[in-house]
Amino acid sequence: MEFFRIKKDIPFMRHALTFNIISLITFVLAVFFLTTRGLHLSVEFTGGTLIEVTYTEAPQLEPIRNALATAGYPDAQVQNFGSARDVLIRLPNRDDLDTNGISGRTMATLQSVGGPAPELRRVEFVGPQVGKELASDGAMALLLVIFGIVVYLALRFEWRFAVSAIIANLHDVVIILGFFAFFQWEFSLPVLAAVLAVLGYSVNESVVVFDRVRETFKKKRNLTTPHILDHAITSTISRTIITHGCTQMMVLAMLLFGGETLHYFAMALTIGICFGIYSSVLVASPLVMWLGVSREQFMKPKKEKEEAVV
Amino acid sequence: MNRYPLWKNILIGLVLFFGLIYTLPNFFGEVPAVQVSSGKATLKLDAASLSGSIEQALRDAQIPSTGLFVDANSIRVRVADTDTQLRAKDAIEKRLNPDPRDPTYVVALNLLSASPNWLTAIHALPMYLGLDLRGGVHFLLEVDMPGAVTKRLDATAGDLRTLLRDKNVRHAGITREGNSVQLRFRDAGQRDAARSAIQGSTADLQLADRDDAADDLKLVATLSQAAQKNIRDFAIKQNISTLHNRINELGVAEPVIQQQGLDRIVVQLPGVQDVAKAKDILGRTATLEVRLVDETPGALDAALAGNVPFGTELYKERGGAPVLVKNQVVLTGDRLTDAQPGFDGQSHEAAVHLTLDAAGSRIFRDVTRENIGKRMAILLIEKGKGEVVTAPVIRSEIGGGRVQISGRMTTTEATDVALLLRAGSLAAPMEIIEERTVGPSLGADNIAKGFHSTLWGFVAIATFMCIYYALFGFISVIALAANLLLLVALLSLLQATLTLPGIAAMALTLGMAIDANVLINERIREELRNGVSPQAAIHAGYERAFDTILDSNITTLIAGIALLVFGSGPVRGFAVVHCLGILTSMFSAILVSRMLVNLIYGRRRKLDSLAIGQVWKPGN
Description:
- The complex is a heterodimer.
- Chain A is built from 10 helices and 6 strands, in the order H-E-H-E-H-E-E-H-E-H-H-E-H-H-H-H.
- In chain A, strands 3-4-2-5 form a 4-stranded antiparallel β-sheet. A two-stranded parallel sheet of chain A has the order 1-6.
- Chain A is elongated.
- The longest helix of chain A is centred in the C-terminal third of the chain and has 33 residues.
- Helices cover 63% and strands 11% of the residues of chain A.
- The longest helix of chain B has 54 residues.
- The radius of gyration of chain B is 34 Å and the shape is elongated.
- The two termini of chain B are 29 Å apart.
- The chains are: A alpha+beta, B alpha+beta.
- Chains A and B meet through strand 5, helix 5, helix 7, helix 8 and helix 9 of A and helix 9, strand 21, helix 13, helix 14 and helix 15 of B.
- Strand 5 of chain A pairs antiparallel with strand 21 of chain B.
């Protein structure tokens, strides 16, 4: 089987400006939603208590809310989770309440509501300090990844590649976050892991294209920079699409069979993969071009003979 | 050109063989077992004699066992099914604990890997499942370090008093104020004498002079940085060992108790579902203190009226009667080496027998000698709130470090107090700052879902690769399977804990690992398209793809390592698998697949075409 029958190089660079304007708009939208709506951070970051219970038949949520309010948690969030039989309860951290007994007391309250008996599936209680540390650790991890990748690419290729790859990939990350902000999906630690994995993965994409660019620069002396980029992208496009397709199949399997816990993790990866393929080809490459990459940067300067000619 | 030397083939074969062996234990599942561990903090498990008597007990009861395993803290016996497990537990319990009221050993139900003994013997053990996969509770506890330092300063104040008295230095009072101990003197000569006495006896204190008035000379002692660090290290170690003892007392199978960061302790109790009970175990964050009762006439009445005299604190006794206790701590729980319930030799009342260590006995002897006829309070301090367990009258000087507490106690109370004291007290109070409970059904669900998503993803990729790249696709799939095998083997070998994010990372890594093979296959097709001969195409395909694979994997690895360094909990579980997966995928995608291609095509002189799917040429 052979999907790609490309006779001539596809003129990606001719449309570079259009793609980048689209990118810029998506990026600005993502930033807009991030600032206006903000991320719906999970209990791991905000601190608080999260209790997941399951019932044998779908319970009424309103009595549960009322019971919790009378038990001293008027700001409890009660919602269905996955199916109508699963209920997720969130309680924010409060100074005046004894944190140690929360889960036990909440379960007691739920049992007193009546109706079908709840079965405890999961309890998470996170102190406010831990949440703050997690958030700062996450930010540090993000910075470390960016720094590490820029340094590696700058050493291995050239600073122009490093800069454009990282811009393109941060654009992916911001867009994933934008999606999470827009839909108010829960941003949890596994999602953070997924976002950072996407950063690595997406750079991976750019590297494959850049690798080909470098090779083409060395091999074909008579082409202009945009043509070389077109050629490099065209000759790797089949691989790019197949690889992404395979990874996407795996992630899709996680999205379909992984259940609630892996749902948003897989979702972040799905968005990341879709935008990763786009940004590494259509954002990173034009950026490299505009930053003024040229053949000379890859030619090793010939060493001048230093001995005096006698 | 496409042949590996024999040693390389053998090497790759060996790696895969070991991978297979170390992956194997994961497939056997678990069987019921009985775990025997020490029931007393003071009792060391003597594996040799104990395993003998366990075997004897099982033989007497005619219970067949399928293996006996010994590790540092416990002995475990594997049995066939849960019925036998219960019978075995009873038989062992009866043999090892002849007196059920005072159990010497904890006999608990447990699960062990069902893999054959020869696998266990070569340390091929299954992966450790995280709590999210098997259910249980997880706590993150924070140790109150300022509390530990304050406590040490209180003890230091007492030590200094004793020291100055021994050296005949007259002082006008020693008190702890904030983070320092203040010694008052009436004249400078005594202060200098005190200074040299203190400096001669300890290096932990930094001393400074402070003159508030001509007749109010002070020496301010603060703990040095090194001493403070020692206190913190000791506090966390002592708390961990205390937690070990407490959990051990309750016979939880395979608990995890680890230090995390400077002042935090992670406790994981697999299989425990009852959070309230688990908290009860840990929540006894009690510290034990021995202090003298202030019996100045009228002082208690003044305290009850709201005027607590300086240097004392008001506590309640168990019965509810108020007791006024001096601030100065005579002894703390860490001087205690053992506590047993028992009976008073004369009055036949229930009593608790305590044994103190050498330093403790000396202090106790001095204090009891000087305070005969007075009352001494044993305080249990939980979460900053103290309660007087008992406040007996000192009848005589008590030397030798053997102390008996009796009076107004039932047998059960005596047992409780002894258990509490014996399990060791905490060097500093702790607070639960994170708590997670995962139900067993959720754990099983998580395993099933994680497994299914990996399986179906793998099947989808395998199908696609085989159709799209024909034989080369099939080889890639074998390489991918080898990758999975090596990854699981490596995780089992490292005894890493597998969590749900770990399974997700495994799936993601597989999805990304196929990239290397796609790169190689595409490259070979491209070479063929350009009219290169098949053998040369294979060679060039692998050679040229190598640089790209290296670059792209290193960038991914950078992200993985950052996650590993800064991540905690689920993120770290993800990162470990992710990083290892990148390493194994490089090995399998490049070496294993190349070996297979070499074995299939390498020996053929004349090769017309490769089974790599259709190679479309623009010219045709």
